[in-house]
Write a structure and sequence with these properties.
about 500 residues; alpha+beta; Lipocalin; 2 domains; globular; 9-stranded antiparallel sheet
Length: about 500
């Protein structure tokens, strides 16, 4: 009998050891890896998401990490936790962490006007000449730039005149702005006398163990990177950025970014007071939606969760404590992270798909039991509630004389935000700054289309046949760009 009893105990121990561990959720319940896999796989298939990287944190540490689907649909290459993906605006919180380290070191002060750090007036810099007639730029501080309260548009090219503008009294309301982060990059590089890529490697990426992360494309990424795909499944390729951009050039992996989030939870490299200030509300958010950023419609819908913005992070409150979140959004990339300070529970979601946002709600509720996310404010419409996609426009390529194509080659916009058009044998290409270029194919002598997204371009010419303007046509909107100089032949 004693032997039978001992055998039963041994069998029970062995059974317990072979059971799948539970990942803790906010409400105290657990979810197994098998349940996570089933949920993620089902949602990816339903929403047509080709690849997804996932990490879940418990007690401030990475407790689960896994990649699903493919990084390249055409070659059926699997996504892995070491696959380099485009971080999009995840970049901003990593840059913000660097800024807070500089605050800790006394190199920056949160409430000192940033123009005072520069060797000449801000409007004397070419990128900021548009502010020459608006003295309010002298009120803008590092705190305002990190909390998106400086008054800038998200990007100047969204303005009708493509010029940078201050749209309200700095510090009085929230309006998400990549322009503000780019101004802060200028300040940081001026104060430290170092390029941003070097600073990020020294102060964030290397200390956090982010070996496959960079602000610019690295040759080492060529062995394992993801292509991005839009809502229709069209490939946009990778984002091979050549210049560091604090608002959105970072390349990373889901594992590396989870290491960053783990470091944030633990306050790695920051004084406790500095980390707490970073994750404390700086401005209440009353806007109806996050985008468009300068819309004036307000709402009380998010007062219950005390929606606000900290220094680089969005914030809201739940029965489980404070939540800190950040989105990363681009045409073919959708990323999201949220961390809960008190419990140390968090999640990182990275997708190579324009459909990725459609599964955030289900993932957050199923894997974390987080039902408090301001989904509507962030614009994350669940995939099952999306209106049917309009059909893809059909185009037929026609032959256009090489001399005509060369007349369209040039730069359009302005020196700070130029779109470069080049002749590529029998078609054109277009490139914004150092972003990856797109091929444009002619369906008439002056009208061109892209296979990547619903973007069409037409050209206006003068009486001599010289191109004077390029018009972008997208989703019912026309955006004109004046020609500014002739392009050199590639």
């Amino acid at each position: 009998m004693r032997q039978v009893f001992l055998l039963a105990i041994v069998m029970a121990i062995l059974s317990a050891c072979t059971q799948q561990p539970h990942i803790k959720r906010l409400d105290g319940s657990g979810v197994t890896p098998a349940e996570i896999d089933a949920t993620v796989t089902r949602l990816m298939q339903a929403a047509d998401v080709p690849g997804l990287g996932l990490a879940i944190l418990n007690d401030g540490k990475i407790a689960y990490r896994k990649a699903y689907g493919v990084r390249d649909k055409e070659s059926n290459l699997p996504l892995t936790t070491d696959t380099v993906m485009y971080a999009a605006s995840f970049t901003k919180v990593a840059f913000g962490y660097l800024v807070m380290q500089l605050v800790d070191q006394g190199l920056l002060k949160l409430d000192r006007p940033v123009y005072e750090y520069l060797p000449k007036p801000l409007p004397d810099f070419p990128n900021y000449k548009d502010l020459a007639g608006d003295a309010r730029y002298k009120k803008i501080t590092t705190r305002m730039l990190l909390s998106h309260t400086a008054g800038f548009p998200n990007y100047r090219w969204l303005n009708n005149d493509h010029k940078l503008s201050i749209n309200f009294e700095p510090g009085t309301r929230y309006a998400y702005s990549g322009e503000g982060i780019l101004l802060l990059q200028l300040i940081v590089e001026t104060v430290t006398q170092k390029p941003l890529e070097t600073l990020m490697q020294e102060k964030v990426f290397q200390p956090f163990g982010m070996a496959r992360t960079s602000m610019i494309w690295q040759k080492q990424f060529d062995d394992n990177y993801a292509n991005g795909y839009d809502e229709y499944g069209r490939s946009w390729g990778p984002q091979r950025r050549l210049h560091a951009n604090a608002a959105g050039s970072m390349q990373t992996t889901v594992l590396d970014f989870a290491r960053f989030v783990q470091g944030v939870m633990q306050g790695q490299g920051l004084r406790k007071e500095t980390r707490d200030q970073m994750l404390s509300p700086q401005i209440q958010i009353l806007s109806k939606h996050e985008f468009p950023t300068l819309a004036t419609e307000t709402t009380d819908e998010n007062r219950g969760i005390r929606l606000s913005y900290g220094l680089g992070w969005g914030l809201y409150w739940t029965p489980y404590g404070e939540a800190c979140f950040k989105e990363g959004h681009d045409e073919a990339w959708r990323n999201y992270t949220v961390i809960f300070k008190e419990s140390g529970i968090g999640i990182v979601i990275m997708t190579n798909s324009g459909n990725g946002e459609g599964i955030y709600k289900d993932l957050l509720e199923s894997l974390l039991k987080n039902t408090f996310t301001p989904i509507e404010w962030e614009g994350f419409t669940p995939y099952a509630q999306l209106a049917p996609r309009p059909p893809v426009s059909l185009h037929h390529t026609v032959a256009v004389d090489s001399a005509i194509l060369q007349k369209y080659a040039g730069q359009y916009g302005d020196a700070e935000g130029a779109l470069t058009v080049r002749q590529e044998s029998d078609h054109l290409s277009i490139q914004v700054n150092d972003w990856p270029k797109w091929d444009l194919f002619p369906d008439s002598q002056n009208h061109f289309f892209s296979h990547m997204g619903d973007y069409e371009f037409s050209f206006r010419v003068d009486s001599r046949g010289k191109a004077t303007e390029m018009i972008l046509h997208t989703r019912g909107v026309e955006i004109p760009y004046k020609r500014i100089e002739s392009a050199k032949r590639p």
